[in-house]
């Protein structure tokens, strides 16, 4: 067991298995992202959101009828303006915090530890929900095309999750390469649809909406500020994923910050063009929302007609929605690694595998997401109300933190930058409040409850590491090591070649060796004990055999009680319990063992502070057991 409680550095665990994150360059650089690969690996969430962002706006404004739909473009332009503010802000976050972490890193430096933990908790919730929402949305598109699969949607969701997880366990570069083609296909089809649609005087086809009930309200001639605010907040779901690049800066090749900034700008430009373009087409074709058909499907129908191009858009949307979970797999493990190095999560999350992937974070994300998929029954509508709240909280904290950053650093033009970030914080803060209030009874209360619970968990982990560090006197120079008298206790049950090897090893380790055996009052057990005593006297190993009587057939407690007694009477001695065990040549043969060594080790570890040596001997094809190596103490 490796435990790290000192300065925030990663701990290696096992040779050639896990390595601490390095600074980049060399052979490790080929497992990091280029700007284009970063766009594919980290933008899927944001790109896929164009499939439901404009639709969220339309569905809210539809309550005011056709008149309300006329405000689709102005609301989208406001969201695009906020997107511009966010992209500009996160470019500065990337430059100021090249170790990743996004809003968490900003808040930790400028707003205090507690606020940074709130930001981290909101990001974790957003990332986990993104996986569940993306997978269920993609599978929903599939089951809409093939209704016979609807009953199997949970299993299909889990299969997609396993696929995405497996790709990410191979490394972030491999995941980027695998998702580059679907991303390019989706972006290309959406841009082509917008371009073609702008040259249409009217919709080419409305076949996809025919026969479906309209979701349009009637009789409204005015649109209130509250409705516009709700539409703006709903449409801001299209901004989820904008922060992913800033969270995963260490995943890029050197110069990492510059590549990440280019990726952030490219993401913002593509997302803004697609959002505005789709909103223009909604107004151009006077599109009305209908039940059972997405807005994007209607736009594809209107631009291309009900032909092969229409199905290409639907297929690309389905694939990208299902794979948009990859954004979380690229960003959350890096964030968890940073939290682990700051002692707010178990240090195992800071370890990297040989392909520069935070394996433990990837597996944890997959398991929690799988649980959400099962609990929600693979239903997108159950998860969507929870989706955007976390990211808005993170956005707001990040913007406020950057205002503080500009005030402290005061570079040229800092007032303008601070004003921009302050305006962005106001917009995202209002959006967070509106979304939480309007969706509270639809499940948003879970997020309101989960956020403080996650923060409390962070604090508890941090306190535990602090207590361990205090007990270990980390950061202080210890007293010089000295040699203490060594007493080795060897539990035995009979005479064998293994017993001889164990006592030989014990004599090599300690100044004094004691052999102990546990006896029971039953007649057959007394006969075995007498036989062992007689054989021991004939053997004359020069080591005292001590009998520990036990009224029950317990094995571990008598030995641990004896070791505890030795510790009290010999406080100056270093106590070691050496447990000899055999290791069969074949795995199945381990089922034949009585697990005596494990029982003893567990009892001694639980009840005493003695060092435990488990001396293993491999049983090979030779007549005699051979030691597998020098015994290594394991406390």
Low-confidence stretches: 1-25, 624-635
State the shape: elongated
Strand tally is: 7
The class by helix and strand makeup works out as alpha/beta
Query: How do the SSEs run, as a string of H and E?
Result: HHHHHHHHHHHHHHHHHHHEHEHEHEHEEE
Helical amount among residues, as a percent range? 55-70%
Terminus-to-terminus distance: 9 Å
Mean pLDDT: 77
By DSSP (H or I, 4+ residues per run), the number of helices equals 23
Beta fraction of the residues? 5-15%
Largest sheet: 7 strands, mixed
Radius of gyration: 32 Å
Structure description:
This protein has 635 residues and is of the alpha/beta class. It contains 23 helices and 7 strands. Strands 1, 2, 3, 4, 5, 6 and 7 form a 7-stranded mixed β-sheet that branches. The longest helix has 33 residues, at 113-145. The protein is elongated and about 105 Å long. The termini are close together. The relative contact order is 0.13. Residues 1-25 and 624-635 have low confidence and may be disordered.
């Amino acid at each position: 067991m490796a435990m790290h409680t000192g300065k925030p550095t990663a701990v290696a665990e096992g040779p050639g298995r896990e390595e601490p994150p390095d600074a980049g360059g060399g052979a490790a650089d080929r497992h990091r992202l280029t700007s284009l690969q970063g766009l594919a690996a980290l933008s899927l969430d944001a790109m896929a959101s164009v499939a439901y962002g404009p639709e969220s706006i339309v569905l809210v404004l539809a309550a005011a009828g056709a008149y309300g739909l006329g405000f689709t473009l102005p609301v989208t332009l406001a969201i695009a303006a906020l997107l511009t503010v966010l992209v500009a802000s996160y470019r500065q976050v990337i430059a100021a915090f090249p170790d990743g972490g996004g809003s968490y890193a900003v808040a930790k430096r400028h707003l205090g530890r507690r606020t940074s933990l709130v930001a981290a908790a909101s990001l974790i919730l957003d990332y986990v929900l993104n996986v569940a929402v993306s997978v269920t949305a993609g599978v929903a598109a599939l089951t809409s095309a093939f209704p016979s699969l609807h009953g199997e949607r949970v299993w299909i969701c889990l299969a997609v999750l396993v696929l995405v997880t497996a790709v990410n366990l191979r490394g972030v570069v491999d995941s980027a390469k695998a998702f580059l083609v679907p991303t390019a296909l989706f972006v290309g089809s959406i841009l082509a649809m917008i371009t073609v649609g702008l040259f249409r005087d009217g919709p080419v086809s409305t076949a996809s909406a025919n026969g479906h009930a309209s979701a349009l309200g009637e009789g409204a001639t005015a649109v209130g500020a509250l409705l516009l605010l709700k539409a703006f907040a709903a449409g801001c779901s299209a901004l989820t994923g904008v922060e992913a690049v800033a969270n995963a800066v260490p995943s890029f090749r050197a110069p990492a910050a510059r590549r990440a900034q280019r990726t952030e700008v490219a993401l913002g430009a593509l997302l803004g063009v697609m959002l505005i373009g789709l909103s223009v087409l909604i107004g151009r074709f006077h599109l009305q929302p209908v039940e059972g058909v997405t807005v994007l499907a209607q736009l594809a129908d209107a631009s291309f007609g009900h032909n092969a191009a229409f199905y290409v858009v639907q297929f690309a949307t389905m694939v990208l929605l299902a794979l948009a979970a990859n954004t979380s797999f690229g960003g959350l493990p890096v964030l968890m690694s940073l939290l682990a190095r700051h002692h707010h999560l178990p240090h195992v999350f800071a370890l990297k595998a040989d392909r520069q992937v935070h394996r433990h974070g990837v597996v944890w994300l997959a398991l929690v997401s799988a649980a959400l998929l099962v609990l929600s029954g693979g239903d997108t509508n159950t998860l969507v109300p929870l989706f955007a709240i976390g990211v808005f909280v993170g956005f707001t904290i990040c913007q406020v933190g950057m205002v503080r950053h500009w005030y402290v650093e005061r570079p040229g033009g800092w007032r303008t930058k601070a004003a921009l970030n302050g305006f962005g914080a106001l917009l995202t803060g209002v959006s967070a409040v509106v979304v939480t209030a309007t969706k509270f009874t639809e499940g948003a209360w879970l997020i309101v409850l989960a956020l403080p619970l996650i923060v409390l968990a962070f604090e508890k982990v941090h306190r535990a590491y602090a207590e361990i560090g205090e007990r270990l006197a980390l950061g202080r120079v210890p007293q010089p090591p000295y040699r203490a008298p060594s007493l080795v206790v060897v539990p035995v049950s009979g005479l064998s070649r293994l017993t001889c090897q164990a006592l030989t090893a014990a004599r090599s380790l300690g100044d004094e060796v004691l052999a102990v055996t546990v006896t029971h009052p039953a007649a057959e057990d007394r006969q075995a004990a007498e036989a062992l005593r007689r054989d021991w006297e004939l053997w004359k190993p020069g080591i005292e055999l001590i009998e520990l009587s036990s009224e029950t057939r317990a094995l571990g407690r008598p030995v641990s009680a004896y070791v505890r007694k030795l510790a009290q009477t010999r406080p100056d001695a270093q106590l070691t319990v050496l447990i000899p065990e055999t290791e069969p040549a074949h795995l199945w043969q381990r089922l034949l063992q009585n697990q005596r060594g494990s029982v003893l080790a567990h009892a001694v570890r639980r009840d005493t502070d003695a060092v435990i040596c488990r001396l293993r001997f491999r049983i090979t094809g030779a007549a005699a057991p051979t030691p597998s190596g020098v015994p290594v103490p394991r406390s």
